[in-house]
Design a protein that fits this description.
By secondary structure, this protein is mostly beta strands. It has 1 helix and 16 strands. It has one helix at residues 96-99; strands spanning 2-4, 13-16, 19-29, 37-44, 50-56, 60-63, 67-77, 80-85, 91-95, 111-117, 120-125, 129-137, 151-155, 160-163, 172-176, 182-185. The strands form 3 sheets. It has a 6-stranded antiparallel beta sheet, with no helix packed on it. It has a 5-stranded antiparallel beta sheet with strand order 9-8-7-10-11. Strands 14-13-12-15-16 form a 5-stranded antiparallel beta sheet, with no helix packed on it. A hairpin with a 7-residue loop joins strand 3 and strand 4. The N and C termini lie far apart (43 Å).
Amino acid sequence: MKVNANTTRPGHVLEHNGKLWVVAKIQIVQPGKGGAFIQIEMRDARTGTKTIERFRTQESVERVRLDDQEMQFLFSEGDAFTFMDETTFEQITIPRDIIGDPAVFLQEGMKVSVQLYEGAPLSVELPQTVTLLIVEADPVVKGQTASSSYKPAKLENGVRVLVPPHIESGTRIVVDTGDGSYLERAKD
């Protein structure tokens, strides 16, 4: 299916130069001279090699139709993550490089969307947000203004995020799984 390059998002699968590519990152570049373009970082679905391609914003790209299957995350062993189809109870193991950076936010029992192409997993889409506990937070530095300053904090999964000064250790927060940024304090 042909779509505009500027509608492409991370996780989409494109057919380009006879290969399947999973989109990892997108950046819209507006140079001082000339028209804007989309810079897409993609990973070959079969070999895992990465490339960066540039497309004009109105250029068409071929988006591949995938089978979306909701699965439940069971456990991880090293760089292998095991998921289960809740209707058939069939389990599949997916390597970390297919999941990408959001793998650190996987929690036991979490429901994810696995995109399959001819039965092979190409990408895993986590929920947009996840709620985690802060286990360690730096103290507030006097003189910082509350509106523009953030302090580092460590989450229960070991990930470091920047949080507002009023957030303390022991607080549950909502984190964006796409970029690992703090969104809000969790409503208990």
